Amino acid sequence: MSLNDLLQDDARDAKVATLVELLDYRAAQHPHDVVFRFLSGDGVEDGALTYQELRDRACSIAAALGEHAAPGDRVVLLVPPGLEYVASFFGCLYAGVVAVRPIRPTRGAPIRASTGSSRIRRRALHSCTRRSRRGWRAGSR
Predict the structure, then answer these.
(1) Using CA atoms, how far apart are residues 88 and 33, in angstroms rounded to an integer?
(2) How far apart are CA 141 and CA 124, in angstroms?
(3) Model pTM score
(4) Cα(69)–Cα(82) distance, rounded to whole angstroms?
(5) Domains with residue ranges and CATH for the chain
(6) CB of 120 within 8 A of CB of 100?
(7) How far apart are the first and last CA of the chain?
């Protein structure tokens, strides 16, 4: 297989130019294909997202963000690593906001310490479930 064969892509032929357009295109063409898998630390699959699931989740997040942030605003993603982080990032892209990764606080420091001194407009934060937040905090110890 040549490099030219690898670079041929139906999305290129469809003039897809952005990640949002690419996800829309793939969700329409291959809705049930898995696009992301999350593996636990020991290599066991902990979940997966299809193109359609990712698009649906990202659009839902974008709608929620749109109620609190305008396109171009910065949004801190306070979401632990995993599929929800990926969906949140794509939600930011759909909403037209800039996704910002927070600096991980040192052990015992409140999260506000990592974002408090920045000039990031914190009008909207996508939060995760209590269970995920507890797991994230436990992982930072």
Answers:
(1) 20
(2) 27
(3) 0.71
(4) 24
(5) 11-139 (3.40.50)
(6) yes
(7) 47
Q: What are the two backbone dihedrals, phi and then psi, of residue 118, each rounded to the nearest 5 degrees?
A: -80, 165
Identify whether the C-beta of residue 62 lies closer than 8 Å to the C-beta of residue 87: no
For 15-47, how does the pLDDT look when each residue is reduced to its tens digit (9 = 90+)? 889 999 999 999 999 999 999 999 988 888 889
Between β-strands 126-127 and 74-78, what pairing exists: parallel, antiparallel or unpaired? parallel
Structure tokens at 71: 């396109």
The closest of 125, 105, 123 to 113, measured between CA atoms, is: 105
Instruction: Give the integer Cα–Cα distance in Å for 71 and 38.
Output: 29
Per the listing, tokens 């040549």 go with: 2
Across the chain, mean pLDDT equals 78
